Amino acid sequence: MNAGTQTHAVDLARSSVRELNATLHALKEGSNASLWRVANPGGLHAIAAGLDAPVTVEVDGPVGYYCGGMNKQATILIRGSAGVGVAENMMSGLVQVEGDASQAAGATAHGGALIIGGNAAARCGISMKGIDIVVKGSVGHMSAFMAQAGTLTVFGDAGEALGDSIYEARLYVRGSVTSLGADCIEKEMRDEHKAQLFERFKLAGVDGEIDPSEFKRYGSARQLYHFHVDNASAY
Amino acid sequence: MNEHIKPPAAPRTLPRESATFDAYTMSEIRRAAATGIYDIRGAGAKRKVPHFDDLLFLGASMSRYPLEGYRERCGTDVVLGTRFAKKPIHLKIPITIAGMSFGSLSGPAKEALGRGATAMGTSTTTGDGGMTQEERGHSQTLVYQYLPSRYGMNPDDIRKADAIEVVVGQGAKPGGGGMLLGQKISPRVAKMRTLPEGIDQRSACRHPDWTGPDDLEIKIEELREITDWEKPIYVKVGAARPYYDTALSVKAGADVIVVDGMQGGTAATQEVFIENVGIPTLAAVRQAVKALQDLGMHRKVQLIVSGGIRNGADVAKALALGADAVAIGTAALVALGDNDPQWESEYEALGTRAGAYDDWHEGRDPAGITTQDPELMKRLDPVRAGRRLANYLAVMTLEAQTIARACGKSHVHNLEPEDLVALTIEAAAMAQVPLAGTNWVPGQDGRF
Question: Could you write out the DSSP letters of every residue in B78-142?
Answer without folding.
Answer: EEE--SS-SS-EEESSSEEEPB--BTTB-HHHHHHHHHHHHHTT-EEE-BTTB--HHHHHH-SEE
